[in-house]
Amino acid sequence: MPSLDDFLAALFASLGPIGSLVALLLIFAVDAALFPALPEAWILITYTFRPDAMDAVGWAAILLVVAVAGDLLGTSILYALVRRILVQGRRMPHLLESGMRRWTELLGVPDERVILLNRIAPVVPFVGAFIATLRWNYRRSMAFVALGGLVKYSVLLYLVFVIGVAYDPRTARTITLGIVVVVVAFSILGSWLYRRRKRAQKS
């Protein structure tokens, strides 16, 4: 029975380098605009299937550019749809807008800076919708999206680079998946603890 590593190897072999990058771009865009798609897992796994012609640093740099581009694309698409259809079309439910405003105020960061916090503890879903509804500065928001993505994924890719030096590719990928599980778990825990702390401070 084929292992997960064999399945991933066959998947990336069929996609090729360009196909892998396009798939990664779409995953990040979907994650930013629609629903969680575990982009941390995909960028790290894609890194471990580096093309033979690419050096590690160059491949990591390309993946970072694609990841940030996907984040910006997905966030911008959601922002444009919400702004055009709901905000400018005056179809945004007042209760929803009020709830979004109160939520960011509860978090203690009621402006674009919450986007950076979101990279550590995901406390604001559908960032593009918040940018449009709360009328945050679009350029500043996109700068925070890009900066947060660069920092977070640079750290993760560096960890995987170090693991790849110390272990064979198959073992490195297994450890990489473990890192993803830990990162996601800590993100969820951090989000819960942050929200709990802020609620306690408000009460």
Give start-end ranges of low-pLDDT stretches. none
Q: Which structural class best describes the helix and strand composition? A: mainly alpha
Determine the oligomeric state from the structure. single chain
- General shape: globular
- % residues in beta strands: under 5%
Q: How many strands?
A: 0
Distance between the termini: 55 Å
Count of discrete domains: 1
Largest sheet composition:
none
Mean pLDDT, all residues:
88
Helix content: over 70%
- Counted by DSSP, the helix tally is 8
Radius of gyration (CA) equals: 19 Å
Series of H and E elements: HHHHHHHH
Task: Describe the structure concisely for a colleague.
The chain is an all-alpha fold.
SSE inventory with pairings:
Elements: H1 4-33, H2 39-48, H3 56-87, H4 94-107, H5 114-120, H6 127-133, H7 138-166, H8 169-202
What does this structure look like?
The chain has 203 residues and is mainly alpha-helical. It has one domain (4-202). 80% of the residues lie in helices and 0% in strands. The chain contains eight helices and no strands. It has helices spanning 4-33, 39-48, 56-87, 94-107, 114-120, 127-133, 138-166, 169-202. Helix 1 packs parallel to helix 3. The relative contact order is 0.13. The mean pLDDT is 88.
